[in-house]
Amino acid sequence: MVEGIDGSGKTTQLGLLAKWLAAEGHRVFVTEWNSSALVKAATKTGKKKNALTPMTFSLLHATDFADRLLYKIIPPLKAGMIVLADRYAYTAFARDSVRGVDRQWVRELYSFAVRPDLALYFRVPIAVSLDRLMARRVKLKFYEAGLDLGWSPHPAESFRLFQGRVLEEYDRLVDEFGLEVIDASRSITEQQRNVRQLIASQVDVRTEDAVVAE
Amino acid sequence: MNILPESSDDGAGGGITPGHYYGRGIPYLPIDGYPGKLIAIEGTDGVGRSTQIQLLREWLEVRGYGVVETGWTRSELMQPTIELAKSSNTLNKLTFVLLYATDFADRLEKEIIPALKAGFVVLSDRYIFTALARAGVRGVDRLWLRGLYGFAIAPHLVFYLKLDVETLIRRVLGARGMDFWESGMDLKHGDDIYDSFRTYQGRLLREYASMADEFHFSVLDARRSIEHIQAELQRQVGAFLEPRGDKESR
Description:
A: mainly alpha; B: 5 strands
């Protein structure tokens, strides 16, 4: 699974990884954070009205995760597939803690999660991620920018403050859960080479292919 | 068979202080020193909870107490989702538990805590014990559940209206019949809704019984008359709110 703040490029890297693994003959299943149909309605209502508190935000995401774990993650694993998760419980650990939810409580909440075989964390400075996001989108999303916390009325400034704290939380997680850190300020190709080398230690691949063409 | 009364010192069981969080709580919402009181009325379907709450509310208001009622699964945020999930029958036990916990968190932060802060007596029609019982019957880990609900506030008083399965069945059939979820049909004990209801409610009752000591329930016999139960509620609530026998309204 891959982790990182918005604009870290983790989704791009996951896409490239999926392509490679499929080309290697593996059956790959990709699942995204907060994507289950069951919880979508409530998340949407809550987000639209900006009515989510840090606790309900946290619990809704855990509900979504439980739903996906049971329907989307465990069955493919049982079938011998490789499941690639775009964000995992660590996203909740980082974000919810910054929002003021008890750190230990969130960790216990997610104790039903399957421990990933490999956890990649794409570390990137705030300025880089913000540049990437700005280049792509017009508007920063309300909760992604941490606007619910009221730290700053300006989306970009709020994003900087909120995601800055999220980065600090991720740094705690690196040691606590043994996340593999990828320097996400490097080129896409360099990062992908790094990713494939790490995967090759876990998954049966022809190692010479783990080198990406420049 | 899976109704082992486990001790849960890591969870809610240890030192319960009424009016405080059971466990880790909500760090950004310190609730110490709030003037309101939280009173929970627990019990399965058909024990007459809502009737008792109505009468108790009336009695409290006559005596000058401000009263706020709250229920289980009534939050604005989650009601549509829970109804949808129930009707489409897609809930598995974990999402079931988490949806209810989300709903409860919403009500806790938006109804219960503000009311306690403002000095109301909050009457809760069911409380987390309903969730703990339902999830316990479905085999969800008890310690995990108690950790999850560590953000809940321990009520000042918990009344448990206790009923036996036989009486319960007669009352539910007499009132409105059995429904899918109240019969635990998701547990697939068989296609017969009567047998399933009986098995499921029997297990629920055992779950409640196992929580009585842990969470300091005041157990009331729900087979007694409405008036008798109400008199007992009034006696205990009165003794709690006005411990020196002061009968004047505040």
